[in-house]
Design goal:
By secondary structure, this protein is an alpha/beta fold. The protein folds into two domains: 30 residues, no CATH class; 123 residues, Beta Barrel (Barwin-like endoglucanases). The chain contains four helices and nine strands, in the order ααβββαββββαββ. A nine-stranded mixed β-sheet has the order 2-6-3-5-4-7-1-8-9. β4 and β5 form a beta hairpin. It starts with a helix and ends in a 9-residue tail after the last strand. The N terminus and C terminus are likely disordered.
Length: 165
Amino acid sequence: MSHQSRVTILAGFGGPAEKRLCRREKNARMPRVQRTMLQAKIHRATVTGVAPDYEGSITLDRDLLDRAGILPGEQVHVLNLNNGARLVTYAITAPRGTGMVVLNGPAARKGLAGDRVVILAYAQMPVEEARRHRPVVVLVDARNRPQRGPAGRGRRTQKKISSGA
């Protein structure tokens, strides 16, 4: 039974116990609203290979993962700029400095070596934090090497991402 319908039913009885319960429920701390925000973006990486027989995921150079703050096993969204395909998978670590960006398993059907992709990770946070939040953006060169940014991690976006069309 929902909070609102329970309060309505109890309020109809009007006894002192019911009024105390209603007052307690009204004053109970409601869960805080969480917003899902862009946490990190690896922008315009080049797919270096596909492995359709692998069990699934995207394999990413450890340098890219570290710079973006993406953990091995973390959910990521992959957007293929060449064909418009979008997929949700998880990150697997490739050796540092290799520049590897490999689509594995079913994800391998969504792109080809040479395609440009954007890799996104999201985080949930309270509204107050979301208003101040700036995602990490990692720009890469043609060989998927991260370009320099503040604190060696990538760069925080300088302006808010607009919600306008």
